[in-house]
Amino acid sequence: MARQLLQQCTVCKAWCLETTCPQCGGNAQAAAPLKWSPEDHRAKIRRTLNNVATPEWSASIPTLPSVEELRAGHGNKEEE
Q: Which of the 8 DSSP states describes residue 24?
């Protein structure tokens, strides 16, 4: 099973990517459990129940503005 990269020290509560805290040398453990197991055998069923394959679902996902839109918006703010 895949291990989560983000770790939290059990002693000083610092965040790190190693299993040993670089600040205090304490033990670090996974900050949160993985949401889904990589070996999830029911993933296909869950995707079917949530209608992930439908065009309506993919259209409902919010999108970020394009680079051109961001640049145009940034230029307008400078002019003001």
A: T
pLDDT at 24 over 70: yes
Q: Are 51 and 57 in contact (CB under 8 A)?
A: yes
More confident residue, 31 or 61: 61
**66 belongs to a structural domain:** yes
Examine residue 1 and state whether it is found in any structural domain, yes or no. no
Q: By three-state DSSP, how is residue 26 classified?
A: coil
- Owning domain of residue 36: 7-79
> What confidence score (pLDDT) does residue 3 get?
58
- Percentage of the chain surpassing pLDDT 90? 2
* Count of structural domains, the chain: 1
Q: How far is CA 79 from the centre of its chain?
A: 36
Radius of gyration for the alpha carbons in the chain, expressed in angstroms and rounded: 21
